[in-house]
Specification:
Layout: H1 2-37, E1 41-44, H2 51-62, H3 67-76, E2 82-87, E3 90-95, H4 98-106, E4 111-113, H5 117-136, H6 139-158, H7 179-209, H8 212-227, H9 235-240, H10 244-247, H11 251-263, E5 273-275, E6 279-281, E7 284-286, E8 291-294, H12 297-300, H13 342-359, E9 360-364, E10 371-374, E11 378-381, E12 386-390
Parallel strand pairs: 1-2, 3-8
Antiparallel strand pairs: 2-3, 4-5, 5-8, 6-7, 9-12, 10-11
Helix pairs in contact: 5-6, 7-11, 7-13
């Protein structure tokens, strides 16, 4: 009998610990932060997935996964410096004040990335498989594509690159390049350099479809440069006569992309990192093990930073106009770990957009419900938001 009572006490004690750890502990810590920092911080708390619930709730209610941040910026402007949140039992900060964002990125060595390699690998492999099936529409072609992928994998394994020594520092001079390092770099190039550029350009096309006047001015800007080079009317020749140096002269085209990135940045923030040590970001005390994030879209939606922040206005960027604080506009992040492909992305985006402008009128598809959804990146949904009408030049 006494043994049964003891077992019951142990079970009850275990239940109490679970309730405290999963339900009460995150809430208590968030309340403590609110009491300490007052109006400078907002609290977002949900049981279980935490912040992820807020994304889903915002998407369901407002067709925008990040509408809660846009609303927060619209209501609080520069008064809010951060918001605190939970994901499961973990709690953390997302800094929105530009000076605090700067401090986070300057102290990057104090944080470590959350290991999402397995999730990325799962998403990537499924993405590749689904795209191949969709493109081929046949089992035979899918098997052929899969066979090609397996051959490429074998080539990677047998490649001499695995036997090469790392050129970076003496400490790694004896280390070989690992499969994990190649996969990490490949995923970075594929996901960060392909899908983001495609969505950036797609968003610019959509915003231009809504503004035919801006679209025509952008087309005219391109033609003014082309007319200095050729009198041809052949569209292919017109496009090919443009040189790399000409892209820097396209002030309006460049401003269109900046405005598009302000309204719909594929990378709206960085993935949460884990603090490796106690550290102070401004007046905010970050404990070892806390999550730390920066959300760029807050300032890009802040009416105190951008006048008429909800309107598409590329002219705000014309003639080299920039923000006094560069951390108010960070579509490619800042600091020592900023996007290494940002210049290539802009070159690719401009080249694609110029080609469309020369060949087509960009027209919105009527009665399409536009949504902004956070998946791996922040993107417009659905894909089919515009159609192209061939121009008779």
């Amino acid at each position: 009998m006494s043994l049964m009572i003891f077992d019951s006490i142990i079970i009850l004690f275990g239940i109490i610990i679970i309730i405290y750890k999963f339900l009460l502990y995150p809430k208590i810590r968030l309340i403590q932060k609110k009491r300490k920092y007052g109006d400078k911080i907002k609290v977002i708390h949900h049981f279980g997935p935490g912040l992820l619930v807020e994304y889903k709730k915002s998407y369901i209610q407002n067709k925008d996964s990040l509408s809660f941040l846009r609303q927060m910026a619209n209501q609080n402007g520069n008064n809010i410096q951060a918001y605190t949140f939970n994901i499961g039992t973990s709690v953390g900060y997302s800094f929105v004040d530009p000076d605090l964002i700067k401090l986070v990125h300057q102290n990057h060595e104090a944080f470590q990335k959350i290991d999402v390699s397995q999730a990325i690998a799962y998403l990537f492999l499924n993405l590749c498989y689904l795209q191949q099936v969709k493109a081929s529409r046949s089992r035979a072609n899918s098997q052929e594509n899969l066979s090609t992928m397996m051959k490429l994998k074998t080539i990677f394994h047998q490649s001499k690159i695995f036997a090469q020594k790392s050129p970076i520092g003496q400490a790694k001079s004896c280390n070989e390049i690992t499969i994990e390092e190649i996969i990490d770099n490949f995923c970075a190039l594929f996901i960060a350099g392909t899908d983001t550029t495609g969505n950036m350009t797609g968003a610019a096309l959509y915003f231009l479809s809504l503004n035919p006047k801006i679209q025509e001015e952008a087309r005219e800007e391109v033609m003014q440069i082309i007319k200095q080079k050729t009198n041809s009317s052949d569209l292919k020749e017109l496009y090919n006569c443009l040189q790399f140096e000409d892209l820097a002269k396209l002030d309006l085209i460049n401003s269109i992309f900046k405005e598009s990135l302000r309204l719909d940045p594929p990378a709206s923030g960085v993935l949460p990192r884990i603090s490796k040590q106690d550290i102070k970001i401004g007046q905010f005390e970050v404990k070892k093990g806390d999550l730390v994030n920066t959300h760029f879209i807050y300032n890009q939606s802040n009416p105190k930073v951008f006048i008429n922040q909800g309107q598409i206005n590329p002219y705000r960027w014309m003639k080299g106009k920039e923000q006094a604080n560069v951390f108010n506009f960070t579509p490619f992040p800042q600091g020592p770990r900023n996007c290494i492909g940002q210049h290539l992305a802009m070159i690719e985006g401009k080249s694609i957009l110029i080609n469309f402008l020369l060949n087509f009128d960009i027209i919105p598809i009527p009665q399409k419900e536009v949504k902004y959804e956070t998946k791996v990146i922040y993107e417009l949904q659905p894909d089919e938001l515009v159609y192209f009408r061939k121009r008779n030049n």
